[in-house]
Amino acid sequence: MSEIETGAGQGDVAEPSLLLEDQMCFALYAAQRAVTSRYRPLLDELNLTYPQYLVMLVLWEHGALPIKTLGTLLQLDYGTLTPLLKRLQAHGFIQRERQASDERSVQITLTEQGTELRERARAVPAAMGEAVSMSPREIADAKSFLERLTSNLSAT
C-alpha cells in the first residue's frame, strides 16, 4: 500500500483506506461466497442447501430440539429458521411437533431418512478440508480468529 493510500507521511494519524482491497469486510464476504460455492455441489447430492445443512448438523449432534434452541445454536431468528424447517420437512428429513406440555413450543426431530442422511454427509467435511488446501493448524487458527471477531462484534 502506498503512502497516499494509508495517509503515511502526513502526520501521525493515517487516514482509513476506502480501497475495496483494503477492507476486511470484503475479504470475509468473498471468502464466505467461495466457501458456500464450494459446498453447493456437495450438498446438492444430499438435496440440501447450505443453511439446511447447518440445521441438520445441529440435529445430528444434539438430537431433538425445540425451535427456540435450534435458532439460538444457529444464531438465526424464528422468521429465518421456519422456512428452512418447512423445506426440510417437505424433503422428509425432519418432523415438527407441537409439545403437549406447551402448545407454543415446537420440537424438531429427525426422521429415519434424516438420520440416514448423516452417513452420506460424512464425506462433506473431508471434501471441504481438501478444498481449502490449508493445514489443520491453519484451519484452527482461521476458525479461532472468526469466532473472536464474531464475539467482539456481538459484544458491541
UniProtKB/TrEMBL annotation:
Subcellular location: Cytoplasm
SUPFAM superfamilies: Winged helix' DNA-binding domain (SSF46785)
Protein's UniProt keywords contain DNA-binding: yes
Primary localisation category: cytoplasm
Pfam family, one: Staph_reg_Sar_Rot
HTH marR-type domain residues: 21-151
SMART domains assigned: HTH_MARR (SM00347)
Cross-referenced PROSITE patterns: HTH_MARR_2 (PS50995)
Keywords: Cytoplasm, DNA-binding, Transcription, Transcription regulation
Gene3D superfamilies: Winged helix-like DNA-binding domain superfamily/Winged helix DNA-binding domain
Listed InterPro entries: HTH_MarR-typ, MarR/SlyA-like, Transc_reg_Sar_Rot_HTH, WH-like_DNA-bd_sf, WH_DNA-bd_sf
Superkingdom, taxonomy of origin: Bacteria
The protein's name: MarR family transcriptional regulator
Top-level taxonomy: Bacteria, Bacillati, Actinomycetota, Actinomycetes, Kitasatosporales
